[in-house]
Amino acid sequence: MKFLNGGNVVRLPIDKIEVEGRLRAVRRSFVENLMLMAEDTGITTPIHVRKVKTRHVLIDGAHRLEAARLLGLPDIAALVVECRADEARAMEASNNLGAARMTPLQTAVFVASWKRDYYALHPDRKPGVFKGNQFTGNEKVVTDKMSLTTIIADAFGVDERTVFRALRAGENLTPEEVEQLDAAPRRVAMKDLMVLGKIGDPEERADVVARLAANGKLTAVQARRARRVEAGLQPPLMEPHEREFQALAKAWMRAKSRARKRFLRDFHSEVWKAQNAGAPLFPGESGADPDGGEA
Q1: Does residue 242 lie in a domain region?
Q2: Among 30-44, 113-127, 164-178, which range has the highest average pLDDT?
Q3: Using the 8-state DSSP alphabet, how is residue 133 labeled?
Q4: Number of helices followed by number of strands (H, E) in the chain
Q5: Residue 264 and residue 186 share a domain
Q6: Is residue 194 part of a domain?
Q7: Most confidently modeled of 16-20, 89-93, 159-163, 261-265?
Q8: Is 136 within a domain?
Q9: Is residue 9 classed as helix, strand or coil in its secondary structure?
């Protein structure tokens, strides 16, 4: 990677900056916030662009660029570099991970992209690679001081196991699936990503994603269960009272005669009282309390 102009920030015409291959789409609400803040101060943080022959392609700062465009600004401050496409993606991911407040979904997507390009640039640092006499089988993405998974886990208040599985979803989700989830009526939570990360079948994952995108009340667990129920792979989920009845019925059927008689002796009054007040316990009976009182 080479910084042009001596590493100094320059002003580039906005209509000459091209935008392509972004890791996340521009969100209108983010742009509007930037425009509101920029009314007094302007766009103060330079964007990053990659020079490709005579073109300038955006690396980082899509929201700033769009805000400047809508404000009618003729140019914008930019740091210009010459680099490969994978280096540009790594810069975009690292800049967003360090500065943006992203959703769990966006975090998973950016980390997955960063990992791919980081290990492509540094294959000797990839987990599982022999380094002399040292073998690293650790799955963590490591920074100088602590693992990236630890940082993300701390930021979202979850354990690292959840983060590992969520990042797996970021690696497996297609751009179309990411777009669907990003536009879903309910924000996709880290636990949803953990479930998606465990789905190895692309067809099943696509179906679960479609259900999440269509129904804002579903979690990934519920969407996956609904699919399996419809496919006849598991029985429908029973209501709590039905589960309790089934448990009682099984216990009764397993019990010996002596245990059943004792149960009836000790709990017959409780069973009767569980009915509506004044109603007979069994058809054809009076509403009298079996202990001798009146209903």
Answers
A1: no
A2: 164-178
A3: T
A4: 12, 8
A5: no
A6: yes
A7: 16-20
A8: yes
A9: coil
Residues 6+ apart with CB under 8 A from 87: 1, 117, 121
Answer positive or negative: Cα dihedral of 269, 273, 278, 282.
negative
Token couple for 23:
């890791």
Beta strands in the chain (DSSP E): 2-3, 10-13, 17-18, 47-52, 55-60, 75-82, 130-131, 134-135
pLDDT in tens, 198-254: 999 999 999 999 999 999 899 999 999 999 889 887 777 667 777 788 888 899 899
* Mean per-residue pLDDT, 87-103: 78
Owning domain of residue 290: 250-295
Q: Whole-prediction pTM value?
A: 0.56
Residue with tokens 């009272």: 241
116 shares its domain with 217: yes
DSSP label at residue 122: -
> Does 119 lie in the same domain as 20?
no
Distant-in-sequence, close-in-space partners of 72: CB < 8 Å, separation ≥ 6: none
pLDDT of 131 > 60? The answer is no
- What is the rounded CA–CA span in Å between residue 231 and residue 4? 58
Specify whether the CB–CB gap between 246 and 238 falls below 8 A: yes
Between strands 47-52 and 55-60, the pairing is: antiparallel
Query: Which of 130, 131, 152, 149 is closest to 139 using CA atoms?
Result: 149
278: left (phi over 0), alpha (psi -120 to 50) or beta: left
